[in-house]
Amino acid sequence: MSNRPVSLVTGAGRGIGRGIAIELAKLGHAVVINYAGNANAAEECLRLVREAGGDGVAVRADVSASADREHLVQETINAYGRIDLLVNNAGVAPNVRADLLEAGEESFDRLININLKGPYFLTQIVARQMIGQVQRGDANSFGPPRIVTVTSVSAYAASVNRGDYCLAKAGLAMMTALYAARLAEYGINVYEVRPGVIATDMTEGVKEKYDRMIEQGAWPIRRWGLPEDIGRAVAAIARSDFPYSTGEVFNVDGGFHLRTL
Ligand code: NAP
């Protein structure tokens, strides 16, 4: 059994997930670095996690596959015996951005399976594990277990060329509310972190569009968000700074959500 708090971060090999893993490592966490296929990126993340003062293991699992979700949780328990923090971060963009009037079901099914169904049922398995820990009085310095889901401004901003992505993120926002309501009796708080435009592989293909928008002041803080910005928000939750908040949404978006006149 690990003395360190144990975090399971999905899609942690690259991008935002890596940023989260590193910030949690700075708090001394053992981080289970889940990835889908890019083992090299996951190994590099593991090296950075150790360098930052954490411990970790990399576990390949496709969050959209039921058996893989079970495997991921089992590997976490095998390695560390507990889960203190689940971070649902893994997600994909549509393979092709297609207009709402043209987009096909294949893309919809792929995206919903990875971005919505995966975290919904992974959270169910992890929640059961966390409830067991709470009922056994199996506490450590971390305090009660917590769950964080990384959504997007796409939970409310309509992009008509990636409706499936927006629907998945809106669904994840409700997922946070549902699990927050269900798990409060066990002392398990549930949070949503809602990034704006963050510099990762996901946004590399639309870099020029966002560069232009930033230049034109499309959101008040005129820069790209960084994986570290999201990591620091998750680390604040991990430090237990919000014990009387659950179902809370943390906008980490440079002020994108503000309406101005
Ligand atoms: P990214 O750079 O493309 O990285 C995606 C990560 O998710 C990778 O580690 C990838 O694993 C993993 N992944 C993909 N499909 C998976 C699956 N089926 N099972 C397990 N892991 C899977 O993306 P990102 O920009 O960091 O995005 C991370 C999250 O933030 C996503 O949920 C995304 O929707 C959200 N988000 C991003 C932005 C942005 O501007 N970048 C804004 C708002 C929200 P491999 O490395 O093995 O491929």
Strand residue content: 5-15%
User: What is the SS-derived class?
Assistant: alpha/beta
Q: Give the averaged pLDDT, no decimals.
A: 97
In whole angstroms, the N-to-C terminal distance is 55 Å
CATH architecture: 3-Layer(aba) Sandwich
The neighbouring-strand order within the major sheet is 3-2-1-4-5-6-7
Task: Indicate the topology.
Elements: E1 6-9, H1 15-26, E2 30-35, H2 39-51, E3 55-60, H3 66-80, E4 85-88, H4 105-135, E5 146-150, H5 163-183, E6 189-195, H6 201-204, H7 207-215, H8 227-238, E7 248-252
Parallel strand pairs: 1-2, 1-4, 2-3, 4-5, 5-6, 6-7
The structure holds NADP nicotinamide-adenine-dinucleotide phosphate.
Summarize the structure.
The protein is 45% helix and 14% strand. The chain has 261 residues and is of the alpha/beta class.
Structure description:
- The protein has 261 residues and is of the alpha/beta class.
- The protein has helices at residues 15-26, 39-51, 66-80, 105-135, 163-183, 201-204, 207-215, 227-238, and strands spanning 6-9, 30-35, 55-60, 85-88, 146-150, 189-195, 248-252.
- The chain has a 7-stranded parallel sheet, sandwiched between helices.
- The protein is globular.
- The termini are far apart.
- The structure holds NADP nicotinamide-adenine-dinucleotide phosphate (NAP).
